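Hypothesis: this fold can be encoded by more than one sequence.
Test: take the structure tokens below, design a sequence, compare later.
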């Protein structure tokens, strides 16, 4: 049996290589009309379209949502309007989200052709105890089992004896399913927020709503179905208070799916690049371009790294042509900037304004046990980053002030901070022309451990650019200059950060 499985694996790999060779030979014929875009990013958009799927759309169908309550209202709205499909992806569904579950139940009862698809993280969703997130799904599974499809993706990084030793609350440290997609029919919300009460009330994130976008919805749906084929399935069981969780493929160990995931995601992206090549040649009326970017470091899928490297290479090539210095706004609720990204910023001449969460706005602030040290751990990472900024001569008041790197911290009473992404403007007094948004925190964990889906969006629409500018301003309303240099970091926190390096 093992020999047969190995033979089949080799055949699949060979077919995969042939497919990709055919794809890369044909991709040179693909181009997009970037004329609507700002001159400073036209060449970058054309280059990126050779590497990533490209979804052109009209800016009138893109809406930047502000605040958790607006996000939650829109989420309930698209669920209630669904007729064919609802597809939701999150780290987990909160065990107390009865209104959300009830909305899904009503939508299923009122629409007999409707199917609901949920893709969640295995470890986070199966924490033991009466508040285990997976238990919240039992009512839906019992009432609509054939039309509710639940997939739990499990990181294969933690395996063997370690998987039995590491406590449930800490096993997420070895990687999670982290993509945040909320869609119904042809409508999609892309966010960094999870489906839990705090994310609907007082945990700040980003939320972009796309209306009447069948190509984007189909892309997101196919991405989730691809991952669902390599995930555990969840079913209800008569007479039992716990769900049945099954691994679907007896021919492969769930800890050995790395090559299968890499193959599946590579083929997914190649298919969508090829299938979109005809549609992107006619972009009449479309002033916005969307590029989905997958990052799954443990599966050797590193599109986010490649995309950001391409962006900074492009900005460096544009230096002699630009009369003004580009401005990049960057934020992460868990700011421990991935070292290659740090190097890209510090070696560039781009001005960079960064917002991080203050210790009190960190989601782990006040937690019991070792997790309560996490905010202090991020203070240590911020101190290291600012020392690197100083060494590069990029602090405010050092050298050319136009290309300074500034760090601020976000703190709002009673709130926590979870926003992440990038906004790029051609100059200090111009609105953003590009943004990166989605699930990535731009740190080592996102690069190597978690499975992420983010999007690069470029637009020429002044209305949408104004909305992106207002989004940045709304975040900066609660930001103050970084105060971390004066904070003490205890020796045990330093020891733990050294021990779990890359997991923060």
């Amino acid at each position: 049996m093992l020999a047969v499985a190995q033979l089949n694996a080799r055949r699949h790999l060979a077919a995969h290589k042939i497919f990709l060779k055919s794809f890369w030979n044909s991709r040179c014929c693909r181009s997009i009309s970037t004329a609507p875009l700002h001159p400073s990013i036209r060449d970058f958009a054309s280059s990126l379209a050779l590497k990533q799927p490209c979804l052109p759309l009209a800016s009138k169908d893109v809406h930047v949502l502000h605040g958790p309550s607006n996000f939650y209202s829109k989420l309930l709205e698209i669920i209630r309007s669904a007729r064919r499909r609802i597809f939701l992806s999150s780290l987990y569904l909160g065990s107390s989200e009865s209104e959300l579950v009830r909305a899904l139940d009503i939508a299923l009862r009122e629409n007999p052709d409707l199917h609901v698809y949920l893709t969640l993280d295995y470890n986070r969703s199966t924490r033991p105890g009466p508040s285990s997130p997976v238990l919240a799904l039992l009512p839906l599974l019992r009432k609509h089992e054939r039309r509710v499809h639940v997939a739990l993706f499990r990181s294969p990084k933690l395996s063997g004896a370690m998987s039995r030793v590491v406590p449930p609350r800490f096993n997420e440290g070895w990687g999670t399913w982290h993509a945040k997609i909320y869609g119904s029919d042809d409508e999609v919300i892309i966010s960094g927020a999870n489906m839990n009460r705090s994310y609907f009330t007082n945990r700040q994130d980003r939320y972009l709503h796309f209306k009447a976008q069948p190509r984007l919805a189909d892309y997101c749906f196919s991405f989730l179905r691809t991952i669902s084929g390599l995930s555990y399935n969840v079913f209800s069981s008569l007479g039992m208070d716990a769900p049945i969780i099954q691994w679907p493929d007896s021919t492969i160990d769930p800890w050995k799916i790395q090559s299968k995931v890499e193959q599946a995601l590579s083929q997914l992206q190649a298919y969508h690049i090829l299938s979109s090549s005809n549609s992107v040649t006619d972009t009449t009326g479309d002033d916005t371009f969307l590029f989905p970017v997958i990052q799954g470091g443990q599966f050797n899928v590193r599109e986010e790294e490649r995309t950001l490297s391409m962006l900074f290479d492009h900005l460096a090539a544009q230096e002699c042509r630009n009369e003004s210095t580009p401005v990049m706004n960057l934020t992460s609720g868990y700011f421990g900037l991935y070292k290659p990204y740090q190097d890209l910023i510090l070696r560039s001449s781009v001005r960079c304004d960064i917002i991080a969460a203050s210790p009190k706005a960190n989601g782990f602030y006040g937690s019991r046990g070792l997790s309560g040290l996490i905010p202090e751990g991020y203070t240590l990472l911020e101190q290291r980053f600012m020392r690197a900024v100083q060494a590069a001569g990029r602090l405010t008041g050092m050298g050319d002030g136009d290309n300074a790197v500034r760090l601020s911290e976000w703190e709002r009473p009673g709130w926590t901070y979870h926003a992440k992404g990038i906004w790029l403007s051609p100059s200090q007094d111009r609105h953003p022309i590009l943004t990166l948004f989605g699930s990535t925190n731009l740190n080592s964990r996102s690069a190597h451990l978690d499975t992420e889906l983010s999007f690069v969006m470029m637009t020429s629409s002044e209305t949408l650019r104004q909305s992106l500018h207002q989004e940045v301003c709304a975040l900066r309303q609660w930001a103050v200059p970084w105060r971390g240099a004066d904070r003490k970091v205890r020796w045990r926190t330093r020891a733990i950060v050294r021990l779990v390096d890359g997991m923060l």
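The two ends are 40 Å apart (CA to CA). Residues 232 and 248 are 6 Å apart (CA to CA).
Hypothesis status: open.
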